[in-house]
Amino acid sequence: MEPLKGRDLLSLADLSASELQDLLQRAAQLKSGEIKLRCNKVLGLLFSKASTRTRVSFTVAMYQLGGQVIDLNPNVTQVSRGEPLEDTARVLDRYLDILAIRTFKQADLKTYAEFTQIPVINALTDEEHPCQVLADLLTIQECFGSLAGHTLAYFGDGNNMANSLMLGCALVGMNVRIATPEGYAPDAEIMARAKAIAAGKTEVLVTRDPLEAAKGANVLYTDVWASMGQESEADNRIPLFQPYQLNTELLGHADKDAIVLHCLPAHRGEEITHEVMEGSHSRIWDQAENRMHAQKALLASLLGCD
């Protein structure tokens, strides 16, 4: 994974198809214990949004690599008092070996990457969530033995998850269908990029019909209907998004061996029913665990651990 050493991961589009496959292979090897890597480095976590899985999985992954973690809560740093991002970035660059950022604007993430020499990782923005999709693809690969040719159907808001799933699936040769209400489609530029990556070999479909998306799919995926920062819209979205709920009826239109994924946290009874979340098709808890393994592979690759 030497080609990734020192690079940023701001978007899944920063990776080639072969680099993504290599990352997933390394994650599987780390999870199984086939390989062990050590890296005495320092990871900074700069999170402006709440986090459970991302924060804990990055922390445990770095500790297991033999490194250290500094939690840079913006509320107790000078960022909260208006220090320019450029200044903060240049200072952190002198202290840390790698930086994972969870923030609202993709542009802020790019500013940090521009003003640092160390690798910068997108730990979630309003535009993309690439680290989650690394774990998603690892989970799908574990379940089916391969990725190419399988179909993932996503239901709900065309948010950062929908954006990153389109890119990730296109890179590994999976079909991806996004079912959203009118006016909530994924980012048009990212959709165009995903279609360019797919190059007509696989399907990148955006539809308003959840049944069309679910038909014969191998993976059914959903996320909350209102993301962080959109809480005031949550109640108004419920009737609009109700037809996109991941429930037993929708699951019945998928392949008989289909799996169910959710990036969490879940609002049971809204975007997914309790029955489906706890049912035999659910791989949600394996998916959550795989955040740690996928991010460990990512950290090791960007840092050049051996």
UniProtKB/TrEMBL annotation:
Pathway(s) the chain acts in: Amino-acid biosynthesis; L-arginine biosynthesis; L-arginine from L-ornithine and carbamoyl phosphate: step 1/3
Keyword annotations from UniProtKB, A to Z: Amino-acid biosynthesis, Arginine biosynthesis, Cytoplasm, Transferase
Domain Aspartate/ornithine carbamoyltransferase carbamoyl-P binding intervals: 7-142
Keyword Amino-acid biosynthesis: yes
UniProt cross-references to NCBIfam families, sorted A to Z: orni_carb_tr (TIGR00658), PRK00779.1 (NF001986)
Family: Belongs to the aspartate/ornithine carbamoyltransferase superfamily. OTCase family.
Location within or outside the cell: Cytoplasm
This enzyme's EC code(s): 2.1.3.3
InterPro entries tied to this protein: Asp/Orn_carbamoyltranf_P-bd, Asp/Orn_carbamoylTrfase, Asp/Orn_carbamoylTrfase_sf, Asp_carbamoyltransf_Asp/Orn-bd, Orn/put_carbamltrans, OTCase_ArgI
An annotated GO cellular component: cytoplasm
The name this protein goes by in its record: Ornithine carbamoyltransferase
Binding annotation for L-ornithine: 160, 223, 227-228
Lineage: Bacteria, Bacillati, Cyanobacteriota, Cyanophyceae, Desertifilales
Reactions mediated catalytically: carbamoyl phosphate + L-ornithine = L-citrulline + phosphate + H(+)
Single GO term (MF): ornithine carbamoyltransferase activity
Pfam family, one: OTCace_N
UniProt cross-references to SUPFAM superfamilies, sorted A to Z: Aspartate/ornithine carbamoyltransferase (SSF53671)
